[in-house]
Amino acid sequence: MDERSDEELLALYAAGDAAAARALTLRLVPGVFAHASRLLSDATEAEDVAQEAMLKLWRIAPDWRAGEARITTWLYRVTANLCIDRIRRRRGSPLDDAPEVADEAPSAEARMLSGDRAAALHAALADLPERQRQAVVLRHLEGLGNPEIARIMDIGPRAVESLVARGKRALEERLLGRRADLGYTDDRS
Question: What is the pTM of this model?
Answer without folding.
Answer: 0.57
